[in-house]
Amino acid sequence: MSNFWQRSITGFLFVFVLVVSILFNYHSFAALFLIIEILALREFYILSSKSHSIPQKYYGSILGGLIFASGYFWQLIDWGFYLSLLIIPLFSFIFIFELYRNKKHPLLNIATTFLGIFYISIPLTLLNHISFLNGAYNGKIILGVFILIWLADTGAYIFGITFGKHKLFERISPKKTWEGFFGGLLVSVAGAFFLAMYFDIFPLKVWSIIALIIVFFGTLGDLVESMFKRSLSIKDSGNILPGHGGILDRFDSLLFVIPVIFTYLYFFVR
Description:
Layout: H1 3-24, H2 26-48, H3 57-76, H4 80-85, H5 92-101, H6 106-131, H7 139-163, E1 167-169, E2 173-177, H8 178-198, H9 204-232, H10 247-269
Antiparallel strand pairs: 1-2
Helix pairs in contact: 1-2, 1-7, 2-3, 2-6, 3-6, 5-6, 6-10, 7-8, 7-9, 8-9, 9-10
């Protein structure tokens, strides 16, 4: 099978599962993103191990999963908030376990274990809260964010290939151009008009601001992951998605975008 067809089939199945899980109900959404969170965290810890670090990948993955689960139960049960507070003491065990591991570079090991949780688990956990922005689960909010991310990526690719001459950040990502950046911005903002018309959640102003957040912070998220991979001299974060690389390769933009969207929606829209 050619690489084109492999990428196409994988991409179609990926989008299909994502859309169906988000729109079906909250439980299917949470189950899918719990799996994504665990796989992404696993990839991050494997990458970290190539940089003289030995993170606590098993306990870090368990703790990351519990953090996501706490966000899930927060929305379902009255005492979900208090259940989330029980996660806090579990962070101290990262230090305690390192005490008994007898590994080199304990400070680096602890730091990368924490970094994976803050870089991946916490942003994905915030998806639970964004989806309940109006007090009940609304998958269209999350789907709308993904649509704008896909439109921004598509616009950046088409405009970059067609008009790209001025490098955006050549040291980290030689293929990214300013033309691609503004093309992604144009297409994503145009998509905001579509969402305002057909997704009866937010007015055009809110979707447009979300589109701007996605383009600016999504680009930074992509550059950060490219920085990680370039420092390790690798092309992809993993190979779980044939033709597309790893989970982190697909969600690097989302990890930077979600905390900003969460802050905007809860402080200025809700």
